[in-house]
């Protein structure tokens, strides 16, 4: 009786196709479809998703960069919304908006309109001075001290609270619906929930809406200067690096704090994103790094990750996002904040010495966006070591046991035959136990080499095709690996069939996984790399599958018993010699000649070479005839037959089958008693869990990285990532691949060829996946000369720039290097349309006057030097701006701003190498800065030198179409497959030279 799950082509093909199809479809569905938002939330009655969506529409109704007037409007609107939320929840407070909104002290809620915190900080060879306009809401916890401790002006040493943060500024070319409007309205809803009746938190909450994140995380730096920054011990940072989809747990400081996110109804993320963030695979920064490095807090970074082609563009709006995406972030934030604020232990509090407690390095990942696994990296390391030790020892023990009882068939070429009345031992019975040992590793090398070669081919011929066709790239790699692997394995199986092919494939896969496991164990221990968890699970699955393969040999007769059985039934097998000549046992008197004949006949199949057709049957004919039958009796290798599988009558007449049982056609007769159903158990161990984990990682990394080449990231490493993940996705299929019906791999080969051609010939960008370019307009305020700088991918930037009317007849200069901080890109420059960022009315000029008439008044600079000293004083005032820079031809060693901040040893205004530029940000318009700087002479200089440089002011407000005509022209006329975003702090940079 044939089992419906026997290890034969039809059951294997059906089960493999169904399982892999189910896994791939379910993974894609989880990745692409955001869980729906509920119509009512009974658990959180004060939370209203529709109100949050309307707030998001208001917030993203215009560009609101820090250096825009719309930013001030959003600031005031947020204060009004917080006031209305508190009034609705009947929380008493004082509506004084001067500096701080303070309720009757001590109040359950205190709202700070921070207009006093200023910060000076250095970064590389640049320094920044920034003035805060943050909004801070303190929700007092039931266990918090019942006093306004922040007024004491001394370090806070009580129980710590929880910070939730989002920034309300956008970039100058994006409406900020997800970056970071969704985070802002989520914070508003958190305030509504935790100030409602019956939902007061146990630990206090600091809800921070910071301003200035988009330019060097200035808002978070300024918060660190506020007294309330001492209170939180843990945090939840809400961000956006895309324009929709699911909100992903981007990174986390430790396992303990990550367990709070585990409470989310739809958790989503993997620790691999945190590892990738550390290695700058995604060129973005968030406030997370300030909270961890400056404030020593432990927390989480939750963000939208894609599509990145909409990130920082005009498509970062509600039209390209959804209420479902907003609710995904909001629901996870409610659950996470609920867990963090109800924490009973002192895990996040300071020690008695006042130092922060350290968490444990964590490993975390979701399963289908519903279940979330969190454990310590030490646990993963322990599992890795256990697998490294227990795996080989277990297999060695099984090998020794099987050898002792004579059932170790692998690597056994022959088994000696003997008769009771014989004087010597006869030549051995062929077992062919070594056959097929090298074919799995050769197949893996060939298939992997093909996929890697395709990666190099795409990187060479059409490198950016993954930008908009990431799934066709995946199709190419998956189908190529599967088809090539099948043809290699099937070719070998056709010429030299063996029952040990599945075992040897598992054997080689275990060796490879063991080598990988050694490497990842070192990474876990020495470098705290947690993203290798899927390799540990992959290795564990390989070990278990191979363990089962070892155990299968216990079902076989011993080699001696098998040989003795053959010897004792020589008459029966001898009479069957006409149909089983290759296996017949000769009479003892003729054993030498007949044994030699038998061995020669048995080796006929083995003598096939690599030139033998993979469709060849055992008689030299080229056909798939009969391929696809179930495990059956072995057909005589010397008899012609029209079918590969014997008929029932042939089975009955074959003495091997009647005595030994049935075995797969053309495989070793001793394999008849191998279980034909255990392959299913091995497949279920190898496939679902490793493929699910690797598949989720593959989709997440593709989503995060496939459009980063627009930022200058190299494309080859992305294709190599995909090639490596292809290996992990499909190697679980290899032990069973040779049993697939030939029609399926043939179809996959055809799909692979078509996808290769498509990927090589397709245009890489589209209207839905637009190539980002980076815009800055440079204006010399002394001469009135301006030029536009457009930075982008070198291959396409000239075509994009030449499509603009003002640049069409110009001799474009596209030979210079990138003028912004994006490496790997190139900048085209041309004279642009004159900017109008400062209205003529503000300068006292007629509206019809050319803008060039007022350029000299856009910026006023007075520089004076103290005689005999390397110090100078700058008086800088820009019109219609609150952001300027001072660029120095030689680095300064110190600076101070009149009315600036007090000393704080956590912040170094100027680094060891000095600063070549000073960025100035003011909370007020038209006020300007009075700055004193000092510099050092080099050791070679005997006399004090002066200082040269230029002062640059920035204009970033594109809400009025006529303010920056060059940008509007670019948006209007550039190809539909491209877009322009801000290339630096300002869209327009106006400069004047100075020398003292």
UniProtKB/TrEMBL annotation:
> Would I find Zinc among this entry's keywords?
yes
* Compositionally biased spans, kind Polar residues: 600-614
Q: Which keywords does the record carry? A: Glycoprotein, Hydrolase, Membrane, Metal-binding, Metalloprotease, Protease, Transmembrane, Transmembrane helix, Vacuole, Zinc
Membrane-spanning intervals of the chain: 12-32, 379-402, 437-459, 471-491, 503-523, 535-556, 683-706, 718-737, 744-765
Q: Where mainly found? A: membrane
Q: Mind telling me which GO cellular component terms the entry cites?
A: vacuolar membrane
Question: Where's the Vacuolar membrane protease transmembrane domain?
Answer: 441-741
Instruction: List, in alphabetical order, the GO biological process terms annotated in this UniProt record.
Output: proteolysis
Which coenzyme or cofactor does it need?
Zn(2+)
The topology of this chain with respect to the membrane is: Multi-pass membrane protein
- Residues forming the Peptidase M28 domain are 159-334
The record's region (Disordered) falls at: 577-653
- EC class (word): hydrolase
Q: Per its UniProt record, what InterPro entries does this chain match?
A: Fxna-like_M28_dom, M28_fam, Peptidase_M28, PFF1_C, PFF1_TM
**Which residue intervals define the domain Vacuolar membrane protease C-terminal in the entry?**
771-989
- Subcellular localization, as worded in the UniProt entry: Vacuole membrane
Q: Any idea what job this protein has?
A: May be involved in vacuolar sorting and osmoregulation.
Its family remark reads: Belongs to the peptidase M28 family.
For this entry, the protein name equals Peptide hydrolase
According to its UniProt entry, this protein's organism is: Viridothelium virens
């Amino acid at each position: 009786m044939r089992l419906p799950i026997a290890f034969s082509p039809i059951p294997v093909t059906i089960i493999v196709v169904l399982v892999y199809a189910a896994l791939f479809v379910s993974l894609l569905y989880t990745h692409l479809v955001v869980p729906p938002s509920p119509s009512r939330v009974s658990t959180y009655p004060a939370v209203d998703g529709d109100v949050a969506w309307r707030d998001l529409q208001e917030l993203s109704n215009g560009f609101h960069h820090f250096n825009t007037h719309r930013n001030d409007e959003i600031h005031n609107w947020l204060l009004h919304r917080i006031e209305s939320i508190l009034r609705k929840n009947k929380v008493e407070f004082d509506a004084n908006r001067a500096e701080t909104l303070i309720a009757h002290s001590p109040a359950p809620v205190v709202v700070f309109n921070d207009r006093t915190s200023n910060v000076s900080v250095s970064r590389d060879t640049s320094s920044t001075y920034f003035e805060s306009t943050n909004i801070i809401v303190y929700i007092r916890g039931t266990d918090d001290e019942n006093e306004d401790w922040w007024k004491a002006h001394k370090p806070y040493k009580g129980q710590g609270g929880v910070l939730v943060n989002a920034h309300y500024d956008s970039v100058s070319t994006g409406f900020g619906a997800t970056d970071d409007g969704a985070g802002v309205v989520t914070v508003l809803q958190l305030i509504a929930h935790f100030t409602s009746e019956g939902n007061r938190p146990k630990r206090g909450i600091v809800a921070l809406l910071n301003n200035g994140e988009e330019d060097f995380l200035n808002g978070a730096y300024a918060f660190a200067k506020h007294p309330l920054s001492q209170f939180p011990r843990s945090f939840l940072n809400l961000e956006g690096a895309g324009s929709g989809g699911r909100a992903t747990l981007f990174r986390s400081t430790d396992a303990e704090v990550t367990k709070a996110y585990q409470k989310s109804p739809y958790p989503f993320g993997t620790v691999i994103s945190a590892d990738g963030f550390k290695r700058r695979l995604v060129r973005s920064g968030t406030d997370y790094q300030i909270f961890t490095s400056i404030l020593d807090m432990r927390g989480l970074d939750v963000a939208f990750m894609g599509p990145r082609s909409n990130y920082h563009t005009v498509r970062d709006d509600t039209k390209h996002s959804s209420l479902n995406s907003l609710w995904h972030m909001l629901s996870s934030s409610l659950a996470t904040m609920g867990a963090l604020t109800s924490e009973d232990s002192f895990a996040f509090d300071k020690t008695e010495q006042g130092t922060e407690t350290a968490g444990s390095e964590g490993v975390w990942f979701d399963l289908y966006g519903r279940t979330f696994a969190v454990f310590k990296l030490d646990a993963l390391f322990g599992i890795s070591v256990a697998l490294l030790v227990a795996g080989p020892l277990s297999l060695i023990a099984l090998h020794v046991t099987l050898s002792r009882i004579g059932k170790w068939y692998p690597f056994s070429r022959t088994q000696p035959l003997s008769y009771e009345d014989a004087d010597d031992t006869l030549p051995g019975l062929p077992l062919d136990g070594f056959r097929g040992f090298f074919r799995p590793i050769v197949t893996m090398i060939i298939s992997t080499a093909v996929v890697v070669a395709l990666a190099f081919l795409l990187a060479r011929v059409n490198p950016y095709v993954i930008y908009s066709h990431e799934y066709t790239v995946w199709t190419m790699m998956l189908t190529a690996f599967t088809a090539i692997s099948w043809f290699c394995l099937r070719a070998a199986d056709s010429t030299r069939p063996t029952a040990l092919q599945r075992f040897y494939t598992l054997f080689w896969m275990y060796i490879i996984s063991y080598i990988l496991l050694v490497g990842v164990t070192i990474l876990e221990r020495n470098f705290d790399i947690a993203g290798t968890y899927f390799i540990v699970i992959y290795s564990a699955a390989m070990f278990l599958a191979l363990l089962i393969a070892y155990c299968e040999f216990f079902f076989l007769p011993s080699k001696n018993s098998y040989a003795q059985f053959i010897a004792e039934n020589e008459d029966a097998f001898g009479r069957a010699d006409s149909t089983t000549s290759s296996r017949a046992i000769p009479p003892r008197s003729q054993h030498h000649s007949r044994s030699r004949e038998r061995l020669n006949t048995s080796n006929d199949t083995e003598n096939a070479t690599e030139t033998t057709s993979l469709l060849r049957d055992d008689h030299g004919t080229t056909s798939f005839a009969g391929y696809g039958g179930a495990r059956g009796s072995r057909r005589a290798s010397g008899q012609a037959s029209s079918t590969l599988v014997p008929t029932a009558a042939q089975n009955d007449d074959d003495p091997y089958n009647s005595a030994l049982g049935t075995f797969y056609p053309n495989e070793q007769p001793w394999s008849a008693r191998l279980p034909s159903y255990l392959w299913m158990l091995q497949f279920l161990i190898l496939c679902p869990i490793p493929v699910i984990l690797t598949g989720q990682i593959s989709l997440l990394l593709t989503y995060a990285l496939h459009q980063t080449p627009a930022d200058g990231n190299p494309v080859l490493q992305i294709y190599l990532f995909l090639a490596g993940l292809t290996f992990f996705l499909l190697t679980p299929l290899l032990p069973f691949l040779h049993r697939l019906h030939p029609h399926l791999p043939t179809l996959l080969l055809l799909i692979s060829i078509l996808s290769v051609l498509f990927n090589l010939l397709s245009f890489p960008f589209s209207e839905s996946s637009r190539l980002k370019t980076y815009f800055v307009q440079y204006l010399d305020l002394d001469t009135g000369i301006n030029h536009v700088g457009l930075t982008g991918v070198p291959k396409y930037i000239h075509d994009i720039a030449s499509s603009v009317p003002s640049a069409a007849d110009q001799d474009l200069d596209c030979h210079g290097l990138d003028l912004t901080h994006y490496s790997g890109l190139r900048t085209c420059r041309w004279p642009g349309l004159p900017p109008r960022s400062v209205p003529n009315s503000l300068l006292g000029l007629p509206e019809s006057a050319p803008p060039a008439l007022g350029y000299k008044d856009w910026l006023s600079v007075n520089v004076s030097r103290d005689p005999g000293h390397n110090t100078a004083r700058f008086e800088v005032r820009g019109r219609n701006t609150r952001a300027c820079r001072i660029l120095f031809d030689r680095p300064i060693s110190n600076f101070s701003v009149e009315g600036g901040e007090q000393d704080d040893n956590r912040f170094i205004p100027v680094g060891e190498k000095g600063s070549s530029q000073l960025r100035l940000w003011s909370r007020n318009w038209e006020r300007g800065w009075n700055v004193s700087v000092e510099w050092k002479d080099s050791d070679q200089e005997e006399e004090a030198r002066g200082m040269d440089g230029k002062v640059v002011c920035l204009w970033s407000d594109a809400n009025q179409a006529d303010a920056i005509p060059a940008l509007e022209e670019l948006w209007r006329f550039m190809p539909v497959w491209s877009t322009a975003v801000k290339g630096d702090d300002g869209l327009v940079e106006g400069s004047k030279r100075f020398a003292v």
